[in-house]
Amino acid sequence: MYLFKNKLKFFGKVRNIFTILAATIIGVLLFEIFLFSIRHGDLFSNYKYSALFAGLDFDSRSRYEYYENMLLENNSAVLAVTPSYYLSNDDFFPLSGIGDRQTLHDNENGYYVEFMADENGFRNPNRKFKKHYDAVIVGDSYTNGCCVEYQDSIAGLLRDNSEFTDVLTLGYDGNGALIEFAAIKEYLGNISFDNLFHIYYDQNDIEAIEWEKNNRILMKYYNDPKFKQNLSLNKKEVLKIKLEKHQEIIESYKTDNKFTLDQLKKIIKISRTRSLISAATNSFRAFKVVEFKKENVEIFFSIIKKIKQFTNKKNANLYFIYIPEYTSVMYPGNVPDNHYNRKEVINFLQDENIDYIDLTNHVKNYKDTSELYPYGKYGHYNEKGYRFIVDKIIKEFKLN
Questions:
Q1: Which helix (H) or strand (E) holds 194?
Q2: Across residues 249-257, what is the average pLDDT?
Q3: CA of 261: how far to CAs of 25, 41, 167, 267, 276, in Å?
Q4: Which of 104, 312, 317, 346 is most buried, taking the most CB atoms under 10 A from its CB?
Q5: Distance CA 178, CA 205 (A)
């Protein structure tokens, strides 16, 4: 009888443990489903709820919803289609968005950004390219002014606060070093300029070479000094490619809200819950150093040398602007100094006598670094952030 009672107690304890485990698992899964329902962890949702809790205005429409409203007023409006969408193309490789169209950018600061693209699809106030510019800016989404109005972008602030009156932007979101070099060769051959600003974002400008180098056309720009696609002379063919890709993106937005097997897998893996925990521990956990493949770093250095040779032939100045990734400046004590090969890049610039400014220390030593980003969250700079770095650039290179 005593033995029987002990067995009952044992099974009772086991049952209680399993009940607690089951309740915990169900609770965690329900929490994960809740996070999924509010899209916690998606950048747009992070900004939206941060604005909501702060009592700030925020346009909560999805990008596609906003775009549908745009079409009611302008049926030729388009979404910003980035060059990186064309990495599988072997006929033509567009290096910009769709030209002469009202273009929808993104929303990080509470409002969607629209701009009228110039004749070649870049974000410039003048629709036609000129024969001479005081300054040319090359790079990725930071160069393209994501996600602020033009007057608050690097180009707009340089034009309004430095000695430059004519500034040409050749940057686009998602660009890596090979696409940036291709844009220089494609569009600046017959244009004179006094200064070229290479805007370098350390998290992915070298990383992008890993997939950009697999494109035959981009590698021809890299290997053949005389190669050009003559995109300006083939506008009909290029526009057809761009509009086809644009339609693919539209179709993907239409199915964006459908529940997929991949999303179910992420819920089972409690991806958003783990991401939430990871973000909560950023302030006291050590980040592992990220270093890029040696081959890609060497290609990047070779590209910068080629750009330097190009600017020398144009009798122009080359300025290299080093923009650090968010975690490097928000949690500086936890991020290794050589994160994203920072030391290696700076040493290369010094060895090659290239004028540069490393904004890492400037940004992380700002009185409150979070003020420079959208609602203090990961993303591009906000209006204050862009103004801060441009002020540093102007002061460093004595441009006013």
A1: strand 192-201
A2: 81
A3: 20, 19, 47, 10, 22
A4: 104
A5: 9
Distance between CA 91 and CA 220 in Å, rounded? Answer: 13
Pairwise CA distance, residues 158 & 399, whole Å = 9
User: Tokens at residue 391, please?
Assistant: 């002020």
Contact yes or no for 137/171 (Cβ under 8 A): yes
Question: Can you tell me the distance from the alpha carbon of 269 to that of 29, in angstroms, rounded to the nearest whole number?
Answer: 9
Q: How many helices (H) and strands (E) does the chain have?
A: 15, 8
Structure tokens at 330: 């928000």
Q: Please name each of the domains of the chain with its CATH number.
A: 1-37+260-288 (no CATH), 63-258+289-396 (3.40.50.1110)
Is the pLDDT reported for residue 268 higher than 80? no
Pick the residue with more confidence: 165 or 43? 165
Burial 221-237 (b: 16+ CB within 10 A, else e): bbeeeeeebebeeeeee
Q: What is the pLDDT of residues 56-84, one digit of tens each?
A: 999 999 999 999 999 999 999 999 999 99
Q: From the CB of residue 357, how many other CB atoms can be counted at a distance below 10 Å?
A: 18
Where do the H-state alpha helices sit in the chain?
A: 2-37, 43-54, 63-73, 154-161, 177-187, 209-212, 216-223, 235-254, 261-268, 271-280, 294-313, 326-330, 342-351, 360-364, 383-396
pLDDT tens digits, one per residue of 103-156: 999 999 999 999 999 999 999 999 999 999 999 999 999 999 999 999 999 999
| CA dihedral over 398, 349, 136, 377, signed as positive or negative | negative
Average pLDDT over residues 231-260: 87
Two tokens, residue 136: 């040319």
The span from the CA of 386 to the CA of 392, in Å, is: 10
What lies within 8 Å, CB to CB, of 279 at 6+ separation is none
Most distant pair of Cα atoms in the chain: their distance = 101
- Give the C-alpha separation, 190 to 213, whole Å: 26
Structure tokens at 303: 């590209």
pTM for this entry: 0.91
CB 128 within 8 A of CB 99: no
Nearest partner of 394 among 142, 198, 161, judged by Cα: 161
The DSSP H or E segment spanning 109 is none
Q: How would you classify the pairing of strands 132-138 and 167-169?
A: parallel
Beta bridge partners of 138: 198
Is the bond preceding 147 in cis, omega lying within 30 degrees of 0?
yes
